[in-house]
Amino acid sequence: MILPLTKDTIQVYREQDVVPFRGRVKEYAVKIKMGLVGQTKLITAASEIVRNMLKYANGGETTIEIVSRGRDNGIRLTFDDKGPGIADIPLAMKDGFSTGRSLGLGLPGTKRLVSEFDIKSEPGSGTTVTIIMWING
Amino acid sequence: MERIPILKLGAFLLVTIQIDLYDRLALDLEEDLVAMVEKTSVKGVLIDISAVGIVDSFMGKILGNIGSMCKLLDAETVVVGMQPAVAITLVELGLPLKGVYTALNVDKGMELLRSKIEIEDIVEADDDDDTSLN
Ligand SMILES: Nc1ncnc2c1ncn2[C@@H]1O[C@H](COP(=O)(O)OP(=O)(O)OP(=O)(O)O)[C@@H](O)[C@H]1O
Ligand SMILES: [Mg+2]
Fold first, then answer.
1. Does B92 reach chain A within 8 Å, measured CB to CB?
2. N or C: which end of chain A has fewer CB within 10 A?
């Protein structure tokens, strides 16, 4: 079972919100003594998802939690937006798929970087991405 | 407005990125660098990212763009000092740093640039020979 220990909510609606948000994620990762590679992967993943949220949904709400499962601790990040949603999630998760004329590696790349990845979307009502990085994988 | 300084170092330009780049700053850097390469007609650009903790796909794209634009202006780009954790992350993210070379530090980066430019000079000299023969 995954137990949340702390919870912090941050609104990200402007490009300038990205760097402070990443800083906050780092603070929490350092607090639970996550290794440098884990931290770097987590913050990079967070950066990708937050950029999608800004680009495709005009921003949204992020939640940072310290979570524990048995002896392991980790960081759980939730990105919740009220944008257009994603009609075909398996397609959006493919390397190279982009409706934004970009590289299309944000979602699949993020999934590779973190321990757990979940995406839920309802066309017309929004998208929620949840990622967890466990200290011990 | 905040801007990243660009230094001229002999035949090259050196940019040291000391802070987390937010989008506007990165796009300004791209623009400033390309303008400077054109103005000074240097043959090489070194971008020191040893103080950068996070390179996401946006920043990766900017580095790649700088590389391709400088190439069009006949200059090579070397990204130096990438932290190991950043390198590991980029590989897993799947981001190809296309159009740029990488080197461990500024010295190695300069060496690399010198060797690239020498090779080009030799090839160009050969081309000239060919035309004179025709
Ligand atoms: N929050 C979101 N709301 C609506 N659509 C989204 C959202 N996030 C992603 N998408 C859709 O999923 C596609 C794939 O996203 P992904 O991040 O993998 O690639 P990208 O953003 O297009 O390119 P890159 O991240 O490489 O710059 C996007 O092009 C977009 O159509
Ligand atoms: Mg993306």
1. yes
2. N
